[in-house]
């Protein structure tokens, strides 16, 4: 009996969120606060336009510095999706980093890690980044290909030798000296021929 062991689930982590807020006072002054207490904010001032520009730049800097984590939970879902109460959905999809800011109010900037299902339901939202897809790994070694798509064969310890070609001959050269017909006769017929020639010579002398 074989027991199948389930794959180890990916450890999920809470989705991050940063809030930059511009708070006004009765004397027409304002201050800027950031949910990240390590950030240094300018002091209270009546230069509202300058403070608003600083708040927007500070929120953009948080969005640019953050790296989207593919195992992060949806921050919107962790709050009960209260940012889009009229449309309910189930958190699903890849993790995205969004920047929310209502220009008509112009006082709050939110940077959040949310799921792909909640992101389009949030108003005044800009998707800043998406989590990178995990790369597929293969256990097979990479194949090498020829320029025309043919796979290289394994190198042989004894590479094939080039076929022998006939040596070039100069123009007009013959194949070799032509042999006399008698030279082509078998070696066994040479002795009878000599005897016949000797008998002819003796007959000539006798006559």
Q: Describe it for me?
A:
This protein is α+β, with helices and mostly antiparallel strands. The protein is built from 3 helices and 5 strands, in the order ββααβββα. The chain has helices at 48-65, 75-78, 190-206; strands at 17-24, 30-34, 95-101, 108-115, 125-130. The chain has a 5-stranded antiparallel β-sheet. It is elongated and about 160 Å long.
Largest sheet: 5 strands, antiparallel
Radius of gyration (CA) equals 48 Å
Number of helices: 3
User: Beta fraction of the residues?
Assistant: 15-25%
What is the overall pLDDT average? 77
Give the overall silhouette.
elongated
Low-confidence sequence ranges: 1-8, 148-156, 168-187
N-to-C SSE string, H for helix and E for strand: EEHHEEEH
Q: Given the helix and strand composition, which structural class is it?
A: alpha+beta
By DSSP, the count of extended strands is: 5
Kindly report how far apart the N and C termini lie: 118 Å
Helix content: 10-25%
Largest beta sheet: what is the strand line-up? Answer: 2-1-4-3-5
Overview features:
single chain; 207 residues; alpha+beta; 5-stranded antiparallel beta sheet; 19% helix; elongated
Provide the fold topology.
Blueprint: E1 17-24, E2 30-34, H1 48-65, H2 75-78, E3 95-101, E4 108-115, E5 125-130, H3 190-206
Antiparallel strand pairs: 1-2, 1-4, 3-4, 3-5
């Amino acid at each position: 009996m074989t027991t199948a062991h389930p794959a180890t689930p990916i450890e999920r982590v809470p989705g991050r969120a940063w809030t930059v807020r511009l708070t006004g006072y009765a004397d027409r002054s304002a201050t800027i606060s950031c949910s990240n207490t390590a950030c240094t904010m300018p002091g209270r001032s009546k230069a509202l336009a300058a403070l608003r520009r600083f708040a927007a730049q500070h929120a953009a800097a948080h969005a640019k510095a953050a790296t989207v984590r593919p195992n992060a939970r949806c921050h919107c879902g962790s709050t009960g999706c209260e940012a889009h109460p009229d449309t309910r959905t189930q958190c699903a999809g890849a993790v995205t980093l969004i920047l929310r800011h209502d220009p008509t109010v112009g006082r709050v900037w939110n940077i959040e890690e949310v799921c792909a299902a909640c992101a389009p339901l949030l108003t005044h939202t800009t998707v800043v980044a998406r989590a990178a897809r995990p790369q597929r790994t293969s256990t097979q070694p990479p194949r090498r290909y020829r320029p025309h798509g043919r796979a290289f064969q394994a190198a042989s310890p004894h590479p094939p030798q080039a076929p022998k070609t006939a040596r070039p001959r100069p123009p007009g050269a013959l194949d070799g000296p032509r042999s006399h017909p008698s030279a082509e006769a078998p070696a066994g017929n040479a002795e009878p021929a000599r005897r016949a020639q000797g008998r002819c010579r003796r007959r000539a002398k006798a006559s």
